[in-house]
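Subject: Protein record for review, amino acid sequence with backbone structure tokens
How to read it: Take the token row as a discrete description of the fold.
Enclosed: The protein record, placed directly beneath this head.
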Amino acid sequence: MYQLHVNDIYRYLFRLTRDQRQAEDLTQETFFRAFASLEDYHGEKVRPWLFKVAYHAFVDWHRKQKRRPVDYVGNVPDRLDASAIDPADQLVNQELWETASAWLERLPEKQRQVILLSTMQLSYAEMAQVLGIELADVKRSLFRGRQKMRQLWKEEGL
């Protein structure tokens, strides 16, 4: 279970914290909590259950760190071999990530979370399970979040 999902959980937590060490700590905390609460696992899909555990680990950490702003999108390379990226493309991608990060910061928390979870390729049902909200609320939040991102793109466009 760990080997299959550790990279996805780490990437999700890194996008939430924007801190490599904190993402590593929260990833470790996620799997520790998952192991400690195996009796609460009732046979549902493992991946969304782990994302739910990771989300709650992040929320607990974030409550303790309210004095620091959180950057939700970082310089996560699109390719595994970051050295193979053309420097000009890397600069453009970095600027796009920074812009998207600033726009995500302007969204309400629920919209921000469903957009991030959708980038991790979770289904609507899995996102609802992770966030503990209704399926209709996931669809609505994702639609409104994407709509707001498009509006920001048009207003402040690139």
Observations:
- DSSP finds seven helices and no strands in the chain.
- The first helix runs from residue 2 to 17.
- The mean pLDDT is 80.
- The CA atoms of residues 43 and 49 lie 10 Å apart.
